[in-house]
Amino acid sequence: TPGWNVEKGVRAGHYLMFQNMQQWDHATLTCMKCKTTQSYEMLEAGYDPKTPLADLVPEVDAFFDCYVCHSDPETLEIVPGIRSFDEKRETYIPDAPTGTILCGQCHTGYTPGFDIDAIYEERLAENIETGRTPDEKTGVMGVTAGHPDVEIFYDSVHANLGLTCIDCHMATVENADGEPMTNHNASGRLTDNLPALETWLECHSAQGMETAADMKAFVKNAQAELAAAGDEARATINELKALLEEATAAGEESEAFDQARELCSRAAFNLTYVEGKHNLGNKVAHDSAEQHEIVVQAAELAQQGIDLLS
Predict the structure, then answer these.
(1) pLDDT digits over 147-168, tens only?
(2) pLDDT in tens, 112-161
(3) What residues have CB less than 8 Å from 31, skipping those under 6 apart?
(4) Residue 80 in 3-state DSSP?
């Protein structure tokens, strides 16, 4: 089913992930660690990790099929953990339930741990180690966070109530014979997924939600509030970037400018951490409180940088 970027005119979703990835110039063999059930080691033996994905198309014949989640589609036994995720699973989320680890094998920031400060420092170090250079106009090092969905969800209200990713994203429905089955429409927007919305009512009716339409409006409002906070933070970050660009063009250098650049880098990182490669606010249900805190911190950090330069 169409996924998050359908509004861009591109059909998307898990099933069509391989076709979509071929449109990305930066996609390489390394991306295949979490994108195919085919043995990564088999591909790695014949190709450099930086081989463009387009060059691997003839070799890939098992892309995001049932075996990503099931060891045996007949028995439906679930064995989460593929490729690189297995290497860090024991120290990463050892006590998380299967329904969270299952999605977390791919929907992660690819950095062990849940502390945003530590994740930023590790990703920054990786950038420096791999020779990535700061932006020429501002001197700011860009740092991204992948899509840390499981990191944000891990200690949320929902998670602490015992819910997992699949409880909302793969709601139980009835098949044609009236028997329960798992809805595998995990790619579509949950606000357009009637079974999911009706499942949420089991908990949110206490907040006055009576229908799926009420639930959808509730989520949309929460998304809008977070997006608005993100817009304010982004405006402050852009103001700081403009000051840094002006100072850099003038050749000004000082400890204050270096500190302002670091603050700008971290502020921008906060927004990418919450966005997770989507529109800011889309995933507010993962943990609304934490995401608001991270966005507010982004604005505060950027303002500190502005104050330094003033």
Answers:
(1) 788 889 988 999 999 999 988 8
(2) 677 889 889 988 998 898 888 999 999 999 998 877 888 899 889 999 99
(3) 21, 53
(4) coil
Among the listed residues 110, 120, 113, the one whose alpha carbon sits nearest the alpha carbon of residue 264: 120
Q: For residue 217, give both structure tokens.
A: 């409006």
Integer Cα distance of 139 and 109 in angstroms: 25
DSSP classification of residue 284? G
What SS3 state is found at 74? coil
DSSP letters spanning 195-236 = HHHHHHHHHHGGGT--SHHHHHHHHHHHHHHHHHHHHHHHHH
- Contacts of residue 21, defined as CB under 8 A and 6 or more positions apart, other chains included, come to 27, 31, 35, 53
Report the DSSP pairing between strands 77-78 and 70-72.
Answer: antiparallel
